[in-house]
Amino acid sequence: MGIQVSWSSDAHNTMLVTYERSWSWADFADAKVQIDTLLNSVNHNVDILSDSSKSGGLPGGNALSVLARSFQSAPSNIGKVVVVGANPFFKSLLQILQTVSLNRAAKNIHFVKSSEEARSLLKII
């Protein structure tokens, strides 16, 4: 699978989503199901650390539409979404979503350059 999803700790307050070099929109859809399942398994807010630093970029297709639908259907207990190493195009698409989306998760996206910076922002040891 081109996207790995896991809890970052036993407290289940931060989720790690890691994009591999090559991934597809089908991988994204599968990861979205896993993310939503994990989010729905707890009754508290969960921060998401999304590491795309090793990703080769976005697959072909209508990325903005797919990403917008993903945020619109997201569970309400998403806290901060910290994106590590987003390429300029991916970052631009997410910034567009921040501007036009009414979804709280889309409004709470933060961009960082390193995992260390992400962990600091999320206060993960």
Task: Give a brief description.
The protein has 125 residues and is of the alpha/beta class.
What are the defining features of this structure?
five-stranded mixed beta sheet; 5 strands; alpha/beta; Transcription Regulator spoIIAA; 125 residues; 22% strand; 5 helices
Describe it:
This protein has a single domain (3-122), classed as STAS domain (Transcription Regulator spoIIAA, 2-Layer Sandwich). The chain is built from 5 helices and 5 strands; from the N terminus they run E-E-H-E-H-E-H-H-E-H. It has helices at 25-40, 63-72, 88-100, 104-107, 115-122, and strands at 3-7, 14-19, 46-51, 78-84, 109-112. Strands 1-2-3-4-5 form a 5-stranded mixed beta sheet, with helices on both faces. Strand 1 (3-7) and strand 2 form a beta hairpin. The mean pLDDT is 92.
Could you list the spans in which at least 5 consecutive residues all have pLDDT below 50?
Answer: none
Query: Helical stretch count?
Result: 5
Note the main sheet. 5 strands, mixed
Q: Into which percentage range does the β-strand content fall?
A: 15-25%
The CATH class, by name, is Alpha Beta
Helical amount: 40-55%
**Form type:** globular
- CATH 2nd-level architecture: 2-Layer Sandwich
CATH homologous superfamily? STAS domain
| Whole-angstrom Rg | 13 Å
Strand order of the largest sheet: 1-2-3-4-5
What topology does this entry show?
Elements: E1 3-7, E2 14-19, H1 25-40, E3 46-51, H2 63-72, E4 78-84, H3 88-100, H4 104-107, E5 109-112, H5 115-122
Parallel strand pairs: 2-3, 3-4, 4-5
Antiparallel strand pairs: 1-2
